[in-house]
Amino acid sequence: MTSRKTSRFCAGTVSRRAMFALPLLFLPSQGRSAVSESLILDPATRKWVPYDSRQAIMYYRSHGRSPKEFQRQLVSFRTAEKPGTIIIDSNKHFLYSVLPDFQAVRYGIGVGRDGFGWAGIVKVGRLAEWPTWTPPAEMVARDARAAKWAGGMPGGPENPLGARAIYLYEGGRDTIYRIHGTNEPWSIGLNVSSGCIRMTNDDVTDLYARVAVGAKVIVLNQGAALFRGV
Amino acid sequence: MVDLIHVKRIVFVVLAASLFVLGAGQAPVRAESGDKVVIGVPAWPSARATSHIISQVLTKEFDLDVELRRTGTLRIFAGIDNGSIDIHPEIWLPNLTALVDKYATDRGSLTLSPQGVTASQNLCVTRATAEAVGISSVTDLSKPEVAAQFDTNGDGTGEMWIGASTWSSTLIERIRAKSYGYAETMTLLEMEEDVAMAGVDVAAATGTPIVFYCYAPHHLFELHDIVVLDEPDHDPATWSIVLPTEDDTGWLERSKAASAWDESGFRIGYGTGLSEKRPEVAKFLNAVTLSADDITAMSYALEVLRQDPKDFAAEWIERNDNRVKEWLR
After folding, report:
1. Which ipTM value was assigned to this complex?
2. Pairing between strand A197-198 and A164-170?
3. pTM of the complete model
């Protein structure tokens, strides 16, 4: 793996920021909201500007699902990678699970700020159903909601890791990066600072059934590695 | 001399180098392979396929006992020199010129086949990119409006992969970008090849414009519809390469490479002793002719279709019966 940005907030949920992803659908808001205020990256200035995530939530609620392009689908996919390999395109918010005969299952993903700052090759090191989430010490120190779960939040629908977690390893060691479910399905297609690579619980469960420990995971460099230092 | 082509072979060479150095000070040990013919088999797919083709022809047509020995390039050179290995299926030039000079010219223990496969290095786009962006030439990348169409991070400049950071060719791609002028309009990315190739797969699947460093023969050309960007033919007068050193931070400014890469390629090599011991085998090896398309197809079969090299070789020989007969005449 290269170009990785170290962070201990990969599975956090409190500090929320968003990068531009669907500019037409999720326009930056002019006002500020105490509850749902987020930040979105202005590509021109490369600065964070206020953003109202309620628009994404409203879209999700009115449609009951993510935008069509982010829904799970079988696609033609010519690659030299073995079936079982995962390819993550953070830039377009797609995750591909390679199948035989030049096909792949394509899923929509949400990308955490810390899931966006690197590109390279890792492996699936561990798999967990309804994983426990333990907030990092920094988050516990500054946020009462996180502090409540300092000893670990049991798996369940409110858990930010969602229904499944796929732990990414490099050289046999945990990278701190995970592909996981979410308790915020509206955030698929967005870059929100919380989480690494987020999928809906349905999708991460589907992927979980296809992937094996040791599988190769490629995180593309298009867009991804370029956000270092943002 | 600067090695003008990197390919993965550079990595194998570097990995094997320490072992080679350890043995360098020792007197050559005669370890004749006897009646058996030993083919040293490097790891990359086309070399594996070629090794199996040679092996099966030697077994069938010359009734020889053949051993395929998986090992690194430098060990094969050393093995050919001490007589324990007879054949190297792909000796890349100019990458390995120093070793060829040592073993073929100075020591006389290595003979190169007169037949070669031509290799090339370029910048490439997918066919969909060429049509959507209207790009046909390397010089187009210096136009901000063209470069902007390869922008994946919204900063207005394009992004392109120029090779892995461990490849010697990557430094030269950086020099080329400066010399052509697109270093100003494009962000140059260095990354493992598998990441870059998966990026091409995704770009092809989604119709996203992509431009990247490419080399041939490579299975990529069979996997996707690829267009090589035009550029002026190699002109040594436009190339002046200064490699970076710890004390020299101005290497890039003082270097230039404002035309295409020079041609490179590879050949079969074999122990000179083989031509004495088995002249008919040496004659056959001198007649083996493969094209860049052959090598691409081999690479595609093993790397993409995951065919077993032994099975692939058997099918290849059957399909190319006339060519093999020609080699045996």
Report:
1. 0.81
2. unpaired
3. 0.81
